[in-house]
Amino acid sequence: MSGTLFPKGGPNPAGAYFTGQSYLSALSEAGVQIFNVTFEPGCRNFWHIHHAKSGGGQILLCTQGRGWYQEWGQEPRELHPGDVVNIPSEVKHWHGAAKDSEFVHVAVEVPGEDYSTQWCEPVSDEEYSKLP
């Protein structure tokens, strides 16, 4: 995708928790961790939860392409450049690209006490294929 705001980076080291190929570029790891994440078409991460005793969570700043975000038990939300997703800690969710579009977002890891990410099951091909 041409005209990217931030570097694409290399293959995502958390790729074992993604269906498809994603790329990761660390933009800042001083104080607040900020990453540029690029998803190839059809790529999405597994369901996951950002745990924290206090604070924590994640903010997604959508910069390119078309993607999806879904919280457990909720309808999927289509994402476009300029969209912002605030994900509180302890909310099970996934995010990724549309079938026909690369998708890029900046992920801001909200600082929290005893922060960790729990990776859960993949988003099934059956559920993903229902998205437009």
Automatic annotation (TrEMBL):
Residues 37-104 form the Cupin type-2 domain. InterPro entries: Cupin_2, HNL-like_cupin, RmlC-like_jellyroll, RmlC_Cupin_sf. Transmembrane segments: none annotated. It comes from the Bacteria. This is Cupin.
